[in-house]
UniProtKB/TrEMBL annotation:
Xref: InterPro entries: LeuE-type
One Pfam family here: LysE
Main subcellular localisation: membrane
Protein name as catalogued: LysE type translocator family protein
Bilayer-crossing regions: 6-29, 41-65, 71-92, 153-175, 187-205
Keyword Amino-acid biosynthesis: no
Species per Swiss-Prot/TrEMBL record: Burkholderia oklahomensis
Keywords: Cell membrane, Membrane, Transmembrane, Transmembrane helix
Keyword ATP-binding: no
Record membrane topology: Multi-pass membrane protein
GO molecular function list: amino acid transmembrane transporter activity
GO cellular component, one term: plasma membrane
Length: 207
């Protein structure tokens, strides 16, 4: 891996992360219903999931998965169901729960195994994340220098670090300009639930 390839990868990663997408919407949604610290742990969980995917990519497991489309189909269906479950559960609880509970501290609404674990599963069960790592990382591996799996792992870790930094920045800005949970209450909770359901539909039609 030479300096040119590394710089090119960083530039490409920044451009990808700068485009608002599912990750951006997810961070906004969780920040509406969780405390800032819980939302930050959620982001770190997504980062850890990214590290796992990067590691699998580096050692060829992700490529093996790509060779068996049925695995990706299963991953896609599981991810869609997970997003639907989070969104519909939030909508249901918002509809039936007492208003005083909604106003008292909505961060528990999305709690399912803890914010870190929730973020981890959101990343792992996102087939687009798997395909993204498979497609992007190998493009910047050079024949000279470290072994290919070492280069892939380094590139993956760099991307995850950039992703975490971007998501934490989005979270910070969201709290400052009131895009986040400061809209807490019935309508903010409904909006968050609809975002998660929308992400489920996005996964259905994106692959």
């Amino acid at each position: 891996m030479n300096l040119e390839s590394l710089i090119g990868f960083v530039v490409a990663s920044v451009l990808v992360l700068a485009i608002p997408g599912p990750s951006f919407l997810y961070v906004i949604a969780v920040s509406r219903q969780q405390s800032i610290m819980d939302a930050a742990w959620n982001i770190l969980g997504m980062g850890f999931g990214g590290i796992i995917i990067a590691t699998l990519t580096a050692f060829g497991v992700a490529t093996l998965i790509k060779g068996f489309p049925v695995i990706l189909v299963f991953l896609k269906i599981t991810g869609v169901m997970y997003f639907f479950w989070i969104g519909l559960r939030l909508l249901w609880r918002t509809y039936y729960i007492q208003k005083k509970d909604l106003d008292g501290g909505g961060h528990s609404e999305l709690s399912s195994g803890g914010p870190f674990l929730q973020g981890f599963w959101v990343e792992i069960l996102n087939p687009k994340a798997v395909l993204f790592f498979i497609s992007l990382l190998p493009q910047f591996v050079t024949p000279n220098g470290y072994a290919s799996y070492v280069q892939l792992l380094i590139l993956g870790l760099i991307f995850v670090a950039l992703q975490i930094s971007t998501d934490l920045t989005v979270l910070y800005l969201a709290t400052k300009i009131s895009l986040s949970g400061r809209l807490s209450g019935k309508y903010g909770a409904y909006a968050s639930g609809l975002v998660f359901v929308g992400l489920g539909f996005f996964l259905i039609f994106s692959i």
